Amino acid sequence: MLKPRLQELCICRPILEDTLIGKFLCFLENPENTSHAYDFTAGLIEKAESLGLSGNILRSYFLHVLAHVENTFACTVEQASGNVGKSLRRAFVRDMEILADVFHEPPSAMLPCDLLDDYEPTKRCTNEASSFLHERMASAASAEEVSDAFLDFYQRYGCGEISSCKAFSWNDKEHKLQGVEHFEALPLTDVIGYDRQKKQLTDNTEAFLEGRPANNVLLIGARGTGKSSSVKALAHEYYGRGLRLVQLAKSQLGELPRILAALRRFPSKRFILFLDDLSFEEFETEYKYLKSAIEGGVEARPQNVLIYATSNRRHLIKESWRDRDQAQDELYRQDSVNETVSLSDRFGLIITFLAPDQEQYHAIIAHYLEKEGVRLAPEELRILAHRWELEHSGRSGRTAQQFVVHYLGQMRK
Fold this sequence. Notes:
- InterPro entries: AAA+_ATPase, DUF815, P-loop_NTPase.
- It is a single chain.
- By secondary structure, the protein is α/β, with parallel strands linked by helices.
- It contains 18 helices and 7 strands.
- The chain is globular, with a radius of gyration of 26 Å.
């Protein structure tokens, strides 16, 4: 029976702290105790079901842990854009030689059980990063080729949550990024119409990804027109090229210095700080943190960070009647108005989303119905859509989707 020398790992030693791999070690140290073997097998099957691991799930689980537990090689790949020193690479190749049995042999060659050789979970993992790593490993025979596969993976996707999550939030209590496990984003093709606006957005984002000059973006316009959906779609569209979305609440703007410091740790990734439905009342001062971040303040904003915001109004800071009062000191009044207008002007690219016209509104409804296999006659669609528009909040992409949900729900009674 094969016995991998896991205790000799060097660069990848942090994986030994994983609870399940610890159970595997217990079995390797006491192979005559089959209780350890079945304890590990039960735990591995549980992981296979929760993570969607398939095939040789001993190998799949080790790949999962290596993708999510940081090690010196992975961190150096991130910091040095893949230019790893010869000595570090040699040490990592040595670890891949130690793990060769895990990667290339069936679990039944190491464990008294054949349940793990070709396991089929109830629901397979469909994660893009995981699929990339498994595809690269399928053609990697030598330790050097396995090392190359991991180098490409770490460079493209990173290590830890940054590799598997497209979007993040900021944990105020622990002052760290937190992956959004169930991130829902429409593809850009589902934002019907607005072709010019989407092109402006994608052109700017692609320039950012390619290291060319790119602007912070403010998307303004009527509610429900697809501003937020368009930004979220970028995380889905460009995930494989290193783009990640960090969604922030207005109340978290005071945390921007900490957030920017955290994002500096990932120079090979590109981050969009996303502020949705942004506006400030006259008494709110959080906007000063945002202005400082955009302008560079004392500490420059990292080159791998841009700020995208959406708003229903062109001027993000509400202008008070006091600011408009002609009786006020003219210098004070001018300063107040400049402050009100200047925040919007800090965004280099302003994209406007207008409410859809009748034809576009009908096209949005038809698109979502067709995705569900439903086609309405043009006249029927026009009558039903117009009735819904009058009874609800007018024409928008959001009300179009709400109509489709209502129609499908009634149709399928």
